[in-house]
Amino acid sequence: xxxxxxxxxxxxxxxxxxxxxxxxxxxxxxxxxxxxxxxxxxxxxxxxxxxxxxxxxxxxxxxxxxxxxxxxxxxxxxxxxxxxxxxxxxxxxxxxxxxxxxxxxxxxxxxxxxxxxxxxxxxxxxxxxxxxxxxxxxxxxxxxxxxxxxxxxxxxxxxxxxxxxxxxxxxxxxxxxxxxxxxxxxxxxxxxxx
Length: 194
Known about the structure:
The protein is of the alpha/beta class. It has one domain: Maf protein, CATH 3.90.950. The protein has 5 helices and 7 strands, in the order E-H-E-H-E-E-H-E-E-E-H-H. The protein has helices at residues 13-23, 49-64, 98-108, 172-178, 180-193, and strands spanning 5-8, 29-32, 68-77, 84-85, 116-126, 131-142, 158-160. Strand 3 (68-77) and strand 4 form a beta hairpin. Helix 4 (172-178) crosses helix 5 (180-193). The longest helix is centred in the first third of the chain and has 16 residues, at 49-64. It is globular and about 50 Å long. The chain starts with a strand and ends with a helix. The relative contact order is 0.15.
């Protein structure tokens, strides 16, 4: 089945823009849940990233009748036993801002030498009659202070392996190429090309 149109199950403008940049060259018309204001917001209450990604994509595919693409991403910090993980977006509380989450993370890691971490993204593609899941991981470390003003979320404190800059300092094309979401979407794109 050739994919010509899909709905990104997200309201996050940064995420939508990132995915559009990757999918547009493939000739795929990209819509998002912003194009369907009647859709309800899906509560991310599953215990895993995969569970949340599938839940969102299933709902949007069912309601729109179009293939839906959704993802869930977690920052997994070794010294915090994999936290914030599935709770990354609401680490500092339900209505927490990106800054609130970063501040809580830096506070939790204060004085801890082992700052190894990884971003993990699970992307779910749901058609009316089939489902596919793709994963991407980017290993790195959490810095002690924020650097850079690009990107969003934990980007100013996450330095990917092999780089001397944070995600928030890297050019978006480089970030899209090496990031967890970029890798998961590349796995998705490879699947489409097959």
